[in-house]
């Protein structure tokens, strides 16, 4: 079996918890790229990154192995690595704290607020749980074991050591972890609950809303239970048996019970990223599993409460929370 060489260590440090971009130059048997600038121009052609990449090269901010500064006229070397930090636009700070629920030498479990993405993606880079925790807790090698939607609050797990990451990720991939969510949604007295909802959910890249595909083989399963009701509002326990994108939000909407504060289901409203007035009333409440590294039995519970239930007047006034 052919073994791949380990990539050299990065010559650039993290910035605010974000690793530099690392690229490996592909083979060039036809001699298409006489120099580094030609290849980078071709790679980023037609994207917003083209101008930024040219600027990084011109200002000496692209480095090779050992910290060597690379320029556009440097020869193209197939198999070589290069590193750089992208220029990112300013991000509004998500003004809510991340609460640490558990920390040992291997595992970090936190209680994430609404509006904070778990990991960098799109326009959310520095204002993510991963970047903030790396910096706040001085854990530069921290990595996510799974992801939680930006709009969903609650429990998220991270691996502290790179060598443990696969073990914790496998818990989720093999469904050896029990997840329980809490949601607030309209009450339908005529709806027979509890029930198991199964459907085929697809989420296309670049499209905000996921869709259910009729008559397709189910790939998503959720158990929906009504815990209690108050007026026309229900507090629901949701237990997902799979982990499709937006799964619980899609399944609740398909039952005619769209989750309060959802800007996508049933209708996309697309509020501003820094509009914190009406958080999605969905909470990752419980994580229960046997630790694959230490063998310890864990049960973690979020300390957060959904605002529309515990403080309905503030919710109606759009005062935000946390």
SS-derived structural category: alpha+beta
Radius of gyration: 23 Å
Question: What's the mean pLDDT score?
Answer: 93
> Counting H and I runs of at least 4 residues, what is the number of helices?
7
The parts where pLDDT drops under 50 for at least 5 residues are: none
* First-last Cα distance: 53 Å
According to DSSP, the number of beta strands is 15
Give structural notes.
The model has no long low-confidence stretch (mean pLDDT 93). The strands form three sheets. Strands 4, 5, 6, 7, 8, 9, 12, 13, 14 and 15 form a ten-stranded mixed β-sheet that branches. The chain has 322 residues and is of the alpha+beta class. Helix 1 runs antiparallel to helix 2 (49-58). It is built from seven helices and 15 strands. It starts with 20 loop residues before the first strand and ends in a 5-residue tail after the last helix. The protein folds into two domains: 21-84, no CATH class; 99-317, Pseudouridine synthase.
Task: Give descriptors for this structure.
25% strand; alpha+beta; three-stranded antiparallel sheet; 322 residues; ten-stranded mixed sheet; 16% helix; Pseudouridine synthase
């Amino acid at each position: 079996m052919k073994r791949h060489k380990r990539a050299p260590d990065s010559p650039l440090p993290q910035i605010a918890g974000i690793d530099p971009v690392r690229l490996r130059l592909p083979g060039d048997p036809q001699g298409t790229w006489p120099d580094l600038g030609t290849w980078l121009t071709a790679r980023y052609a037609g994207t917003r990154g083209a101008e930024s990449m040219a600027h990084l090269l011109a200002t000496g901010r692209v480095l090779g192995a050992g910290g060597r500064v690379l320029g556009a006229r440097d020869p193209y070397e197939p198999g070589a690595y290069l590193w750089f930090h992208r220029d990112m636009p300013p991000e509004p700070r998500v003004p809510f704290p991340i609460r640490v629920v558990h920390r040992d030498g291997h595992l970090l479990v936190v209680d994430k607020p609404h509006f904070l993405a778990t990991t960098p993606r799109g326009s959310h880079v520095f204002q993510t749980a991963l970047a903030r925790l790396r910096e706040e807790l001085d854990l530069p090698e921290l990595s996510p074991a799974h992801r939680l939607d930006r709009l969903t609050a609650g429990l998220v797990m991270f691996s502290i050591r790179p060598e443990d990451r696969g073990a914790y990720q496998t818990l989720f991939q093999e469904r050896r972890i029990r997840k329980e969510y809490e949601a607030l949604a309209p009450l339908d007295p005529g709806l027979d609950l509890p029930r198991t909802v199964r459907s085929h959910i697809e989420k296309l890249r670049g499209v905000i809303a996921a869709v259910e595909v009729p008559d397709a083989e189910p790939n998503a399963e959720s158990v929906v239970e009504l815990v209690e009701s108050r007026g026309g509002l229900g507090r629901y326990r949701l237990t997902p048996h799979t982990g499709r994108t937006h799964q619980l939000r899609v399944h609740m909407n398909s039952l005619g019970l769209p989750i309060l504060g959802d800007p996508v289901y049933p209708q996309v409203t697309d509020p501003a990223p820094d509009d914190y007035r009406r958080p999605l009333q969905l909470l990752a409440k419980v994580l229960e599993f046997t630790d694959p590294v230490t063998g310890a039995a864990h049960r973690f519970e979020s300390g957060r409460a959904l605002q529309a239930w515990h403080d309905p007047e503030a919710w109606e006034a759009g005062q935000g929370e946390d």
